[in-house]
Amino acid sequence: MACARILYVTVILVSMALDNVARRIPLLPPCDFPAIYNFGDSNSDTGGISAAFGRIPPPYGQSFFPRPAGRASDGRLVIDFIAEHLGLPYLSSYLDSIGTNFGHGANFAAGGSAIRRQNETIFQSGISPFSLDVQTVHFDRFKAQNTEIYHRARNLSDRRQVPRPQEFSRALYTFDIGQNDLVAGFRQLSTPRLRAAIPDIVNQLAAAVKLLYQQGARAFWIHNTGPVGCLPTATLYIRKAKTDKYGCNKDQNGMALEFNRQLKARVSKLRAELPQAALVYVDVYSAKYHLISNTKTYGFMDPLKICCGHHESNIHVWCGQRTLVNGSEVLGVSCGSPDSYISWDGIHYSQAANQWIANHILNGSFSDPPLTTITQACLKR
After folding, report:
1. 92, 286, 345, 367: which is the annotated catalytic residue?
2. Is 42 an active-site residue?
3. Span of the secretion signal (predicted)?
4. pTM of the shown model
5. Which of 44, 164, 285, 287 is most buried, by the most CB atoms less than 10 A from its CB?
């Protein structure tokens, strides 16, 4: 009986201890991020490429803004939902000088951007000149100039338009880039050559993180690349692609998984190289693939269906464009219910899909190290 009583008490005490630990994890003090600085491509561009090369046309932006707002979607992007979650305004693009307010961060992302510089122009292949190294140069200039403006400002209202110098080290630095390196590689390189290029691509992203760390950045939120083989364009023009049961291009997804494997390992090494940094690796691939493989469960249509544009009988008119087909003008218009589609225009996700993805990564479900919320992203683990 005595042994049984001791065992019982021990179990109760251990259970209470574990319960206390479980209760303490969500009670960790949240990070008070005063700003976000984002680096990326069209998945997180809030107006950069639109400002640099011409306004993205209607019906982009129709579901929320309700006008074109520099975003390659019918509404908000994942980065917009991150800002909402942190109680911050939507990010203004660094490249957009009209109506911008950088008091709570800036967005250096630009549609078509890659990590590595590409030997192509945007007019040839849609690859942006604003590669990741250029984006970090923009940040360096932005920080220096805004710090100077802040110290020279004569009144409070002027200072509110720029970040306070001491807040750069407390901001969240987000990355969502790499997809265009793979897309360019699919077009330009053989599979062995592209695979051999991945270490250099990953190291260049790591070099960008190091540069920002040297500038005082400490909290990093790094997305891996999504399942590019599940984008409708991945199979639209490839007739003999090997596909999985959801219609995704298996070879392209396999390359994305290899990129992500190496990226995760490199982020792990960065934790040792940058001892004061908190680096969170976010498995966006798994979040997106889970949505794509469970569309009916979450109320979405076939993931390969495209909402905006005309794609029938091998005739493709892209979203917002118009062309003559057999003497008649065909418009790339929106579908009637964008919120039931995953793909907005064949390349980019709809606002509804972006919101689903954001909800499932902001709660830490796909983070390494594990978090209960993005507001813990400044805490070293």
Report:
1. 345
2. yes
3. 1-22
4. 0.90
5. 44
